[in-house]
Amino acid sequence: MIRSELIQKLAEENPHLFQRDVERIVNTVFEEVIEAMARGDRVELRGFGAFSVKHRDARVGRNPRTGESVEVDHKYVPFFKAGKQLRDRLNDQ
Predict the structure, then answer these.
(1) Domain of 93: which CATH number?
(2) Do residues 32 and 40 make contact, with C-beta atoms less than 8 angstroms apart?
(3) Are 62 and 92 part of one and the same domain?
(4) What are phi and psi of 85, to 5 degrees?
(5) Which domain holds residue 49?
(6) What is the pLDDT of residues 8-40, one digit of tens each?
(7) Which of 33, 43, 49, 79 is a Cys-bridge partner for 83, taking CB atoms 3.0 to 4.6 Å apart?
(8) How many structural domains compose the chain?
């Protein structure tokens, strides 16, 4: 599901809201999650999962085309851990 499909589905399920308002709500939620993660905070949505930021140390990598060694700087990457309800639902338990 992409963002526009999510907005459409929520608008259909909430006919009392205008689609532009639903779009604004979805965008605000995503922006808040992004801003929290940018600050290094953890975002937990009960029953769904938790978003956090992991640090990857600098390392020496390899260019797959040439086999040449390449220095890879340290970086921060987003990480998602699924909640128990989500895992159970996916596994039909």
Answers:
(1) 4.10.520.10
(2) no
(3) yes
(4) -60, -40
(5) 45-93
(6) 999 999 999 999 999 999 999 999 999 999 999
(7) 49
(8) 2
